[in-house]
């Protein structure tokens, strides 16, 4: 059955800006995968968004503050003219034209609104448990609509009390956009939002100790943190290239010897892990969160004791044991758009069948 789907984007930044982190690529990938399967997709996103996969409605208003840096007891805050509120007012007006609304924002309001919509609302939760308020409102949404929550990985689900009520969707990528590279240059890569929970400093320190250059790509969310990191390791050869669109980003990434993934927090998935594997780039990651579920230790990279820079350096020394072709193969096997589309359809079907 063809579904008419309304995707409501994250409210922390326009699509294409990098401010939304991995969610931006996830929306793009999910739209592509469902369009390929014959469904209709319409996207609603903050003003200034760039999106080519599906028709988009840009909505004005003030951006939401990101939840990543809040403590567990932080209450919900919203600006006066909230883009989140405006996007959901739009969704309410047009809901009758759609079979299902899919929410990508890690925000209280859309979860709370689940019970007030006539059209079912599905929520793809992009981070692990961060605040009491969000945990509680997700539980309330589940009580009203038991199938409505999906997450990316089992480790992410397990940060919540309601782990067994979450669908695990993984993720999927347009693998034709990532070119396999058999012959890397000498450097290492680090990709992502530059913010403390991503612990760039560990990667810089490891690259300095290994005597290899480090290419850093991604949205600069916290300038002070970045300056401090660079000043701590004056001997490191760090090359910051900014936030690049996927085609340019993978041109740099695929030539690297390995991707270092060093999060301090439970990374929900880690899109960049699959993007690296798709180029044939082995991944060296801390054994925590989503990356630990993805990387096959000793086969498509190395899993290292969390927060151990020594472990990263040892893994870099053992990179020659990893076959780059096996990395590309893993991405093709588990993380294609077709695989994602199939899993998403199964999730939607459960929501639409619930009484
Ligand atoms: N990214 C990008 N260009 C860059 C660096 C990163 O498009 O130069 C994207 C990357 O494709 C990924 C996202 O930034 O989708 C980072 O997402 P991830 O899931 O790794 O972490 P998050 O930021 O969501 O915590």
Automatic annotation (TrEMBL):
Keywords: Glycosyltransferase, Transferase. Residues 191-333 form the Glycosyl transferase family domain. GO terms for molecular function: alpha-1,4-glucan glucosyltransferase (UDP-glucose donor) activity. Its EC number is 2.4.1.11. Transmembrane segments: none annotated. It is an enzyme of class 2 (transferase). Residues 21-176 form the Glycosyltransferase subfamily 4-like N-terminal domain. This is Glycogen synthase.
